Amino acid sequence: MLPDFAPVHLLYLGLAIALEIAANVLMKCSAGFRRKAPAVLAIICALAAFTALSHAIEGIQLSVAYGIWGGVGLIATAIFGIAMFGERLRPSGWLGLGLILGGVVLLKFS
Hints:
Elements: H1 7-29, H2 36-56, H3 62-85, H4 91-108
Helix pairs in contact: 1-2, 1-3, 3-4
């Protein structure tokens, strides 16, 4: 199980994940940074995500917080890509997402 930590750290981790997802979606919307508004918002979200993550790791182990942040962010970004942009994954991509999910679950119990 995760060691004891203040709930605020979990909130910061959730915020960091949400901001990372927003940054990734906005990068896609920026069309390679040719569209300025989504590009600037993507940069702001990315910086805010790292700021929130830095607050989360004050009370959560770095390896656990970063693993969850990266894993959940990647899985959610893939889902947004499928839902919003019609992207498709090959079976190996689905397997990779499943392995990432398994890794995040194992981190919870480390």
